[in-house]
Amino acid sequence: MGRKVTLATCALNQWALDFDGNLDRILKSIEIAKSKGATYRLGPELEICGYGCSDHFYESDTQLHCFQVLEELLTSPVTQDIICDVGMPVMHRNVRYNCRVLFLNKKILLIRPKMMLANNGNYRELRWFTPWNKPRHVEDYFLPRMIQQVTGQETVPFGDAVLSTKDTCVASEMCEELWAPNSPHINMGLDGVEIFTNSSGSHHELRKAYVRVDLVKSATAKSGGIYLLANQKGCDGDRLYYDGCALIAINGDIVAQGAQFSLEDVEVLTATLDLEDVRSFRAESSSRSILASQSETYYRVKVDFALSAPCDLFLPSYEPIQWRYHTPEEEISLGPACWLWDYLRRSGQAGFLLPLSGGIDSSATACIVFSMCRQVCFAIQNGNQQVLAYVRRIVGEPDFIPQSPRELCGRIFTTCYMASENSSLDTFNRAKDLAEQIGSYHLNVNIDTAVKAVMGIFSIVTGKWPKFRVNGGTSRENLALQNVQARVRMVLAYLFAQLSHWAKGKSGGLLVLGSANVDECLRGYLTKYDCSSADINPIGGISKTDLRSFIQYCIENFNLSVLRSILSAPPTAELEPLADGQILQTDEADMGMTYAELSMYGKLRKISKCGPYSMFCKLIHTWREAYSPAQVAAKVKYFFRMYSVNRHKMTTVTPAYHAENYSPDDNRFDLRPFLYNTSWSWQFRYIDQKVSEISDEGVNQSDSLD
User: Fold this and answer.
1) 579 DSSP 8-state letter
2) Catalytic site includes residue 114
3) What's the average model confidence in pLDDT over 43-70?
4) What's the CA gap between 537 and 13, in Å, rounded?
5) Percent residues over pLDDT 70 in the chain
6) Active-site residue, selected from the candidate residues 29, 31, 45, 660
7) Which of 183, 357, 423, 440 is catalytic?
8) How far apart are CA 518 and CA 595, in angstroms?
9) Cα–Cα distance, 332 to 338 (Å, whole number)
10) What is the pLDDT of residue 680?
11) Of 509 and 583, the one with more pLDDT
12) Which 8-state DSSP code applies to residue 55?
């Protein structure tokens, strides 16, 4: 009698609508799982078509090609003698569902539709799918003819059911269902399900890995059981980075941990676990036994197959492990770098171009590219031939093998310092020194000629020549003169990205990288269509505070000594005239608020769902030691005015790596108007009323004490 089961879960770097590549990665994962002795293989959510198909889910082509891939899987010898659990959209009675398709030896065992859909933050599953709202209910699904010809089946079970093998009971749970207050695994476990599987499409956010791990541990800590979680990894064509972290747990203990960040397209995790450990764990709990004796029964699909071997005495059993979490600085170093690698190799471009100003933001972006080069070189040293093949294709040299991250940086990364008469020698030197230390191909460009040419056209037409504020100009003149510099830099960045390789006699173009952080986007402290307007932005979802910590991490771990001077310098846009060669303009003075305050505003606005009044109510307590209620009110009102005045900029902001849950990304995550009544008359009047009441109450208390 078998007791021990070897189970496999995986993290796959799938790509939306890349049916050829997705099929290859699925087959490879099954092959690896079988080679490790697994009898059950679990894959990520919607792995056949890719999770990020978005409105392509509406197209019948997407479902057609999914079934064609399924046909290939069913007929492949690789999938024989192992239960395969794959994800794809399925239309049942003219309703589209997000489904798991479980099959064994050319027979479909069950199609299990998702019951709880993710529909917040970056997720819009209700736009494309309908939840299965029939608990424990199963219907007949009529298979397409192409599948019938392979399986010999006309119909298969479709619905909320579980698999009953010769030795155990297995049930599917899908991504969001684990996060729900009444997760399916609760009732499934009470009905005797011993193995739970979860196929996810879960993306990375800073400091959030523990949530997923804790939920899985909790799922089996109370009622016992084995839990497998599979997840997508990488950039599948959008702003998100799916961060793997495949895992296996039993009775509240983690026994196998997958990588969170990796350049491996296929990662398979296996564990051999004793079913008797689940049974003895459950039998000890009288409260669970009482509830289980009263539980409703799930429809069981009987499978003439055993997950365990008849003689498994000598198979090793599990040992609990401690989950290894990355620090936020490591997450910034690894996540955006992996996202950049996926974007670069899949875009067909020859590298990146970054306007490098010598400030923290652009320097952090450069360090992320350098980190990407480090990971690429590490993967090649470990024998990853696929990564090496991509590198050779990108650099256009069939025999190239990078010997160091600096060498690779020099081939695929161009940095460009775009000086004006308002730029300082300090930032010039910092940009030059950083480029030298990371090995990028560095350009120095002076934009004054282009700026004067643009202003000359304006002067010819209007007969006017605007002045900076320090030279007697108005605020409008001052801002316009800053904007034209910033926009000229954007035009030049794209020009050099398109033609710099051509000028060197090489083929290919470069992706332009932006470097506006999440706080500046929230405040609107950027010029529309300036250097923040790029192809992609690896730091657009990261706060200034976290970027400063990341720079310190790079000093300590990448040996980039020039970053010390960059870290100690005050952030500045360098768009206004210098005074005796010294910088007068600083970001925080320009913005009228500190970066720490901006982070606070951002978290309250987005995460705590605060409007102006609610934010005021929270901050009068948080900042009570530093500011009076009237000062807090003034700060809150100023933030909301500047946020609303500049919100239109978010409609054109560069696609950025999503890393922070207070991101103002207008594309999907933070849906707001971009034309506001910026006076906020009713809201601000109510705040002023409360400030007055607080002030009067303070006077009355003082009088009573006298």
Assistant:
1) B
2) yes
3) 98
4) 21
5) 98
6) 45
7) 357
8) 10
9) 10
10) 96
11) 509
12) G
